[in-house]
Every structure is written in C-alpha cells, then in structure tokens.
Specification:
- With about 140 residues, this protein is α/β, with parallel strands linked by helices.
- It is built from three helices and eight strands.
- Helices cover about 20% and strands about 30% of the residues.
- Strand 7 and strand 8 form a beta hairpin.
Length: about 140
C-alpha cells in the first residue's frame, strides 16, 4: 500500500500576501482559492513537479501561530539553479551550502548535501536540497 503525503498546512497571518509570495515569487501553482464565507477561505498551492501541496487559509484549517512551521523541504535537481531563480524572483535566500559529507560518490559534489534556505513573509522556514536522482525524474514527468 502506498501512503502519499498530499497536503501540508502552512500557518500565515495574511492569506493574500502569502499567496502572492508562494505563487509569484516561488512559482507554486495556485490549485484553488476557495472562499466559503467571510470566516472561511482555503488556498491550495503546489510546487512545480510536486505530488504534495501546501494549504494556507482561515476557518477550515487548524489554527497554528503564523511562522511556526520550520523545516519544510523542497528537492531540486540543481541547487545552484534553484538559488539563481529564487534570487531573480526577489526571495531572500542563503548562499548555497554544503551540509555534511556526500554518502556516495556523485558527479556533482553538491548532490545530496547541497542546500539553500529561505523563509516566507511570516517566518515559516524552508530548505531546498539538491537530489538529482529523485528530483530530475519528478520534474520530467511534470513537463
């Protein structure tokens, strides 16, 4: 039996500001923006090539302090390219970092151990890791 992670709730203080950040600056696809009432709104966004989405909203999502989610992680085939794209989109992102020792020899020394980090406008923390063997096949299926 497959168990797939489909949605992660990301706590934000301003839905429109967060939607703009994730859609415009990160390039996430807006799957839907549903307003049920003045007190209930759900926005689902999906990173390109991902099988898991994020949800921001109010009313129909669990209450968590905005900015309290840390350690969310995206995987890309090329962390240098991801860094360049984030910088070009105006995202404050760390320099590329090599964390740890690569567990096996790879053509690119950053594979598995190359990371960049950023936060959304509320302070929810994200990492981007280079794993070309996994991310490359996902991205090619999305194109």
């Amino acid at each position: 039996m497959n168990w797939t992670l489909e949605v992660v709730i990301v706590p934000v203080s301003d839905i429109d500001r967060a939607k703009d950040f994730y859609a415009r600056q990160l390039g996430f696809v807006v799957d839907h923006d549903t307003v049920i009432s003045d007190d209930v709104r759900i926005v689902q966004l999906t990173p390109p090539g991902s099988g898991c989405s994020i949800v921001i909203g109010k009313g129909a999502v669990p209450h968590m302090p905005p900015g309290s989610l840390k350690g969310l992680q995206l995987v890309v085939p090329d962390v240098r390219q991801a860094h360049a794209e984030l910088v070009a989109r105006g995202v404050e992102v760390t320099d590329v970092q090599e964390l740890g020792v690569n567990p096996s020899p790879t053509p690119d020394p950053l594979d598995n151990v190359g990371f960049v980090f950023f936060s959304d406008p509320d302070g929810n923390g994200w990492g981007v890791q280079q794993i070309s063997s996994r991310a490359g096949s996902r991205l090619s299926n999305a194109d």
